[in-house]
Amino acid sequence: MAEPISNVKKMEIPKEKIQQDNLEEVIEAVSENKEAILKGIDFLNTLNNNGMLDMSHALVKHKEDALENVMNELNKSQYAKVLENIMQLVFLAGELRVDDMKYFAGRLNDGMEAAGNQEQNDKTSYFDLMKALKDPEINRSITMLLAFLKGMGKE
Fold first, then answer.
1. Which residues of the chain have pLDDT under 50?
2. How many whole angstroms separate alpha carbon 76 and alpha carbon 108?
3. Is the separation of the CB atoms in 111 and 105 below 8 Å?
């Protein structure tokens, strides 16, 4: 009959093998994420050139002091109304219909571009106004403006 096993030896992996496996894993990760790493290096270089890297490093290193200074500044009475307004502005932003705002902002940009291209010396007569109402784009804009004013004036 066989003898019972009384001494179990653990298989030890050499340190060099572990290091080699880790190095291969890092090389593979770098290869797969090359673009992100290069962008990160460029970002860090930009921060360093602007002095922001040193500033952010100091801010993180001394975060307690920095936070205390910021809180001391915000606790001054001159900032109380600003902080109240910021909170109200956040709540107002939650009520806005963003898709409608995007649509009207785009239309407003188009109108401002057309107004910027208009000659400053042009004069508009009453006859020009009547003639302009026949233009479908102007008529559409005036109709939209009148609907806006009607909606704004509702109680």
1. none
2. 39
3. no
